[in-house]
Amino acid sequence: MNQTLDPHAQELLAQYKSLLPIYEKMAEVIPERLKDFFAEAGIIVAAVEHRVKAEDSLAGKLRLKGGKYKDIFDITDLVGIRVITFYIDDVDKVASVLERLFEIDWENSVDKRKAHDTDSFGYLSLHYICRIPESSYSVPDHPQLNKIRFEVQMRTVLQHAWANMNHDTGYKSGVEIPKVYLRNLSRLAGMLELCDDEFSRIRRELSDYRRNVQKLVSSGNLSEVTLDGDSFRSFLTIKPFDRLTRRIASVNQAEIQDVDLSSFLAIFKAMRFETLGDISDLIKEYSEAAYQIACFQIGLTDIDIIASSLAPQNLCIAFILKKGWGAVGIKHMLDVLNGESESNAAMADFLVEQCKDLPFMNQ
Q1: Which pTM does this prediction carry?
Q2: Residue 198 C-beta-side C-alpha neighbours within 13 Å
Q3: Domains of the chain (ranges plus CATH)?
Q4: How far apart are CA 234 and CA 217, in angstroms?
Q5: pLDDT tens, residue by residue, 12-46
Q6: How many CB atoms lie within 10 A of CB 258?
């Protein structure tokens, strides 16, 4: 193989072989550092891939255009990193991380997203040529580390999948494939590009919706907020059941153990609540009843720790009993909270029997 290379190309290949351990170390370390920085920046990526150009591949490149390289450091893609994101918007966020971490060779970096060809979708990567600055990381025994440039490609999952499919079909060459198939592939590329755009748009709109929900919850306009997973999580941040929980705990001067209350969303939905205002009304109307149930439950015991779920649970029990849904309704609630069990039916019957003489049931 090497006999077909001119002397200059052979020298470049020898330099490559001497630096191969450094290339391999870079390909191992850089992705791990990137993952750490992405985590710190709150950027979730689908994958971070890496490769070192194989000797055969480099030799082929040098046969074609070895004369354009003065030395091995002029070749910028011997170490390649690929960052695959879920959303288009995250490509720019990844790029900003790279700009903080590395020196960017802007002259040789390419933003292929600016292409407008009909068959360009799978090739719309952002390519940065990078170098590790000495101020960031250096190894005295290997000063070459800070001279080696490497390539980082950034693209979305859909762009990555499309590029891989194109590689298999030979679509990009446009030679072997009949025009009818090229047309169909171009249509599909347009659909995938639209999907990429729509995924990002939906995420932006969801973020806007969540921020609006948080503002409405903070301002107390709960009747304007539809009850769903996002709004309920925001509602729990203002600790709506805390006042009742502390009152119940005072019965035995008990300690309060915080637990996850997200499972109550399904119960409130089953109770036909539609807004956060409905839960707020439940707290106002049924807190006294929930307190009466708690006094019955723990008043004559030595329980000194209660779960924060006791308050919303007793609110629901009071509501269910006043609505006349009886043991069936309470069992369903207990099944949601604790998992389905025969003991839930027995507990539901017990609660119905014991609560029937409490003051709130006769009001």
Answers
A1: 0.69
A2: 7
A3: 2-172 (3.30.460.10), 238-362 (no CATH)
A4: 7
A5: 999 999 999 999 999 999 999 999 999 999 999 99
A6: 11
